């Protein structure tokens, strides 16, 4: 039995490694299409048959891919649109012969595709470079990253037509590449050429402009997705698709990860990092050493670079701090919700305490929310060998300064006197006045006692006191 368990873990690990090998570049594929043969594109839920009369709204812009030949009784076309015909595809008029799949005809209307939004996470899926659906695993994405990020590759399936609303809160939507009809466009010039063709205006509409850069993320510590400005749009589309508000979590004070629409039970870990940190290698390490363990079979992890807004005295500043966010959730329910994720987070924190400095992690903070946490308490744990070293260094410095001060007050230690030069020290010292020519005067307000005078004794009358008056020139009295 133990050998069988080890074999299952080995197969799981190999599958994960194959999955991770393809995650250096992220490919997201658009799911819906506007094909003629797709049943969901028609209001009747079926593809039109010979006795049907097909209606396209005259004021709707469409691009429709036709895979096979069709006989129709009649068809009303839009004012602006296109049919993309595959080899052998055609439309013919129905000749009245018997059609076994179309006993009674009727009006069939093409569905409205205008509202299919680029920023709807439910309309995208992660795929392999080949276009095949990526197998499920322990890695998931927060909602903002389910939509193509600025360094992702976008695929529109070959042999499909589509129409996408690109309305955005940012003027340009940056991407690494876009593949349309099997053709990958990965340079600004190739994408500009496609936009100048007849199909692009029929496929993309909205105020957001797609920009292909052809560049991958240049930072080994990862790159932020870049969809934060459209976060509200993403969440609105996600909740609209589900038809209900965010579900009520089992924990009383759920966590709210950056870039995620709804609160979750489980744990989050925020990492501050150094230039030595490698996001992909660290993700691989966590999967291989921790997530692959059987006790964490129901735990999923999201890890990415995010930007957290800085706050001071409750005021949010415009600057944002980059950090690595790890989100851990599990499939447990009720009072056990989030407990497996909490245990995994504790193991990750222990690993960081031991190896964090070598991995390029300067500090870390963990927050948890589980179904059995009293009063929804969220725990924060600053950990890091570097952070601990800094605190110990400060304590040692304070102890050293306290020891020096103690020895100095006991007379065991002498410190050299430090006298700072004053501006008036550079003035020429006046000559001592002659005994017979007393140029001083008594000032009843300005009364200076000699340093060793006893305040209880009367000041000798023959004591002379002088002070330097910058407006008084001694040479004028000699003339």
Folded structure, characterized:
With 479 residues, the chain is of the alpha/beta class. The protein is built from eight helices and 20 strands. It has helices spanning 2-21, 188-195, 200-203, 231-242, 279-291, 339-359, 385-409, 474-478; strands at 27-30, 53-55, 62-66, 70-72, 74-76, 81-85, 91-93, 107-109, 124-127, 153-156, 164-165, 172-175, 177-180, 183-185, 204-205, 209-212, 266-273, 299-312, 315-330, 361-369.
Which stretches are poorly predicted, pLDDT < 50 over at least 5 residues?
7-23, 375-381, 383-388, 426-439, 448-463
H and E string = HEEEEEEEEEEEEEEHHEEHEHEEHEHH
Most strands sheet: 5 strands, mixed
Evaluate the radius of gyration. 38 Å
**Fraction of residues in helices?**
10-25%
Overall body shape: elongated
| Structural classification | alpha/beta
Side-by-side strand order of the widest sheet: 9-1-10-13-14
Mean pLDDT: 82
Question: What gap, in angstroms, lies between the N and C termini?
Answer: 118 Å
Q: What's the count of strands?
A: 20
Query: Strand portion, in percent?
Result: 15-25%
* Total of DSSP H or I helical runs spanning 4+ residues: 8
């Amino acid at each position: 039995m133990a050998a069988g368990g080890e074999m299952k873990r080995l197969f799981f690990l190999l599958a994960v490694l194959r999955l991770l090998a393809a995650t250096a570049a992220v490919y997201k594929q658009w799911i819906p299409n506007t094909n003629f043969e797709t049943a969901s594109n028609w209001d009747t839920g079926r593809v039109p048959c010979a006795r049907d009369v097909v209606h396209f709204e005259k004021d709707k812009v469409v691009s429709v891919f036709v895979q096979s030949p069709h006989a129709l009784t009649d068809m009303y076309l839009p004012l602006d649109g296109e049919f993309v015909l595959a080899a052998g595809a055609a439309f013919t008029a129905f000749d009245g012969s018997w059609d076994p799949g179309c006993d009674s005809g009727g009006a069939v209307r093409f569905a409205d595709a205008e509202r299919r939004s680029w920023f709807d996470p439910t309309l995208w899926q992660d795929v392999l470079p080949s276009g095949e659906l990526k197998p499920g695993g322990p890695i998931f994405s927060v909602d903002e990253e389910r939509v193509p990020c600025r360094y992702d590759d976008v695929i529109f399936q070959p042999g499909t037509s589509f129409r996408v609303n690109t309305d955005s809160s940012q003027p340009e939507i940056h991407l690494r590449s876009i593949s349309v009809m099997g053709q990958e466009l990965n340079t600004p010039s190739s994408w500009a050429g496609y936009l100048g063709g007849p199909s692009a205006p029929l496929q993309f509409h909205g105020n957001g402009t797609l920009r292909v850069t052809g560049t991958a993320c240049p930072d080994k510590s990862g790159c932020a997705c870049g969809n934060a400005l459209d976060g509200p749009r993403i969440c609105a589309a996600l909740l609209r698709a589900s038809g209900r508000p965010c579900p009520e979590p089992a924990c009383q004070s759920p966590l709210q990860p950056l870039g995620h629409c709804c609160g979750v039970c489980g744990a989050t870990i925020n990492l501050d990092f150094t230039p030595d940190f490698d996001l992909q290698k660290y993700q691989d390490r966590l999967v291989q050493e921790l997530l692959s363990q059987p006790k964490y079979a129901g735990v999923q992890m999201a890890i990415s670079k995010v930007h957290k807004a800085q706050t001071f005295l409750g005021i949010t500043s415009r600057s944002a701090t980059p950090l690595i966010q790890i989100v851990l959730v599990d499939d447990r329910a009720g009072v056990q919700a989030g407990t497996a994720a909490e245990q995994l987070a504790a193991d990750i924190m222990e690993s960081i305490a031991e190896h964090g400095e070598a991995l390029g992690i300067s500090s870390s903070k963990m927050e948890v929310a589980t179904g059995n946490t009293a009063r929804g308490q969220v725990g924060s744990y600053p950990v890091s060998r570097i952070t601990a070293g800094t605190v110990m260094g400060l304590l040692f410095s304070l102890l050293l300064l306290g020891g020096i001060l103690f020895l100095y007050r006991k007379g065991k230690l002498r410190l050299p006197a430090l006298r700072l030069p004053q501006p008036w020290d550079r003035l020429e010292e006046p000559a001592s006045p002659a005994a017979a020519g007393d140029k001083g005067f008594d000032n009843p307000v300005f009364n200076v006692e000699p340093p060793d005078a006893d305040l209880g004794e009367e000041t000798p009358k023959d004591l002379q006191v002088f002070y330097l008056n910058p407006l008084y020139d001694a040479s004028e009295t000699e003339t």
